[in-house]
Amino acid sequence: VVSEEFLRKLPKCEHHLHIEGTLEPDLLFPLAERNGVKLPDTFPQTVQELNEKYKSFADLQDFLNYYYIGTNVLITEEDFFQLTWEYFKKISKQSVVHTEIFYDPQSHTDRGIKLATVTNGIKRACEKAEKEFGITSKIIMCLLRHIEPAKCLETIEEAKDFLVDGTITGLGLDSAEKPFPPHLFVECYERAREINKDLKLTAHAGEEGSAKYVSDSLDLLQTTRVDHGVNSIQDGELMKRLADEQIMLTVCPLSNVKLQVVSDVKELPLQKLIDNNVPFSLNSDDPAYFGGYILDNYLQVAKSFPHWDYNVWSRIAKNAINGSWCDEKRKFELL
Ligand code: HPA
Ligand code: ZN
């Protein structure tokens, strides 16, 4: 087993982190109070009760039901700045060198908040983190798959300036996977590519959905990365393609256990990915809900795969740098 010290110091890149998923109960309640947001009566009313609920989720949808309620307490640009800054303060102690942050603008614009309010708050925290911690970052806008594709197209238009000027580096797709397969969003991805041909593309796929959701994301949406993607191992052809094209899976170990995708970190097909030369990174997904930030994910994986030596871990760290959407100069600095 490699030492905890080694894992703590290992330079890390995070590629799968929903900023709304970093909303800790001890920020959620004060923000609700500050903004006069009434939480539903059925929602836990104290930090303690909420932490109790977070101990287990039945599945992705059970988690999402809580996650979207929590999101409602975020209103002002300062709220989004504060949320993001709290995340950076935590990961600044975990040797994170580069992070790519997902956000769900539709969770906010549906409540009358401007897409620019959300985006500017997150962006301001990213700039401060680069100055104060030397952590570089990119912002990835996700579309919610439970929202009508026609509505999603409107969100893309609302984000147009940010897509053109590079404030938003990539497009992603999240929320309930199985009922909303990739083919529904072909037009959205086409439109986003038309606005900026250099836009990076990813999508959640193969978390609860089958390997077909992964191959359809690649074929139909033209993504060059896959979020979760653990069900890819159901399809040998797909595995070969992921290796040949070096398509990175952004794996989230603690999330997969909490949402009952697997029963234990040990059950994740990470050895199989390594043996088949499929690149992956390790990520925290929604750390406030799943019991740990990125370092906790690294530590749990190390515990579950005790035979991995320094060479294996160095390869994982290098693959994460190579799979990042930072520019070539930054990649060179990090490698
Ligand atoms: N899957 C789908 N949607 C999400 C997730 C996830 O893991 N986290 C936040 N939104
Ligand atoms: Zn996710």
TrEMBL record:
This is Adenine deaminase. Catalyzes the hydrolytic deamination of adenine to hypoxanthine. Plays an important role in the purine salvage pathway and in nitrogen catabolism. Zn(2+) binds at H16, H18, H204, D285. It is found in: Cytoplasm; Nucleus. Signal peptide: none annotated. Its EC number is 3.5.4.2. One of its GO terms (biological process) is adenine catabolic process. Its cofactor is Zn(2+). The gene is KAFR0A07330. Residues 11-335 form the Adenosine deaminase domain. The active site is at E207 (proton donor).
